Amino acid sequence: MGLLTATPALLDHRLTVIDAGPRPGPGAFPGYRIQSNSTGSDFFGWVDPAGPFGPVLDDPAVRRLREHRGAFDLALLAGALDRFGDRLATLLPPDRLIREDPLVHVAVDKEAIGLTLASGRRIDTRALVLALGITEPAHDALAPWAARTIPSGRIVRDHLAALPPLPADRPVRIVIAGGSHSAYSAALVLADAVDAGRLSAEVTILHRGPARLFYPNMDAQVAEPHGPLEALPDLARDICPETGQVFRYSGLRHRARALFREIAQGARQGFTQRQIPAIDDAADLLDRADLIVQALGYQSRRLAMTIDGRPWDPAGGRAVVRPGPDGRIPLPEGSPAQIFVMGMDPYPYDDGALTPTGQYALRGGQILAALARPPAAGQPLPLAEPV
Ligand SMILES: Cc1cc2nc3c(=O)[nH]c(=O)nc-3n(C[C@H](O)[C@H](O)[C@H](O)COP(=O)(O)OP(=O)(O)OC[C@H]3O[C@@H](n4cnc5c(N)ncnc54)[C@H](O)[C@@H]3O)c2cc1C
């Protein structure tokens, strides 16, 4: 939705949107039953009020999000994205908005891109944008404790219902591996349950490195005391040149930040933080844990791809699919196929764009430029059902 709402000129092309879910727009956000690490005003400033998505800016759900001060429940963002999805559905012909029919295979043959959906439907296209989001697969470092490990996303989505049966006669020993926003979102669910008398737990949060905390500016950062587990900002790298904010996107914010500080100051009984260079260094603790919450990061969601008949991994064996400077996935041997990637790396995006706003419009411009170029001579594209 970021891409399309920032670059609605993409709708002037023969565009098809394919989504595995029932509704275009909200993506993963309905599953995040936690508070944001962003602010409502971060969103939709990129939408041209005079463009096709402009009227949605006046929708009460969108206004509520954008005017909200401070942290908000991510359900608010899911609702706003839903409104943009509704608008998209009115802008595309019905057969060009495909829902609940996931893309399962991409076959690249020179410039031609052949898509196969789960239903068996096939689509040939001249350009493809992969915007499949991220997943949280089981991490190798926790393999010895896999039977007692759940991903942080489960707690974020299902809260206490995510927990397996646990001892009821003593405080449950829980280890959260990782010190990110996801880790502290899971920790907050647990802390709220403890406060509500629904859980008795000893929770240890394992940090690999010092944690980043968001500050509105450097003066605010200097004014606060910092414990040994808090990362000190690199003045050249970690201050947003647009806003002066410190760790603008990567820093813990709102209640997650408050919980970090509370634990760091020893003010939250039953919760401790430990810095460990490697997971194995906490083997004793993990052996004794009743439950381990994995919050060690995300990978790009993949699907099967072939290039000239040979299987191909768009991430090149790494965790994240990273586009080249032109926004395309670098293909082997300079294959000219136009496959772009939007997002698919853990937030904040990491392709040189300063903010998501810049990333959406940047990628949209790159796709429009590629579409403006005629296909290479001698390679007519099979446009049976084109995008
Ligand atoms: C715990 C947590 C908290 C976060 N908090 C914030 C926050 O406060 N603010 C913020 O801005 N960001 C936050 N983020 C980041 C945010 O989730 C992502 O930036 C955002 O969801 C990325 O959107 P996306 O469209 O790239 O991916 P997703 O939202 O994951 O959407 C992927 C889409 O691809 C579809 N799809 C997947 N596979 C297929 C397929 N094979 N075929 C067709 N469709 C497919 C899915 O149905 C889905 O609609 C958070 C992330 C996490 C994990």
TrEMBL record:
Q: Which domain of life is it from?
A: Bacteria
Q: Which UniProt keywords apply?
A: Plasmid
Tell me what this protein is called. Uncharacterized protein
> What species does this protein belong to?
Tistrella mobilis (strain KA081020-065)
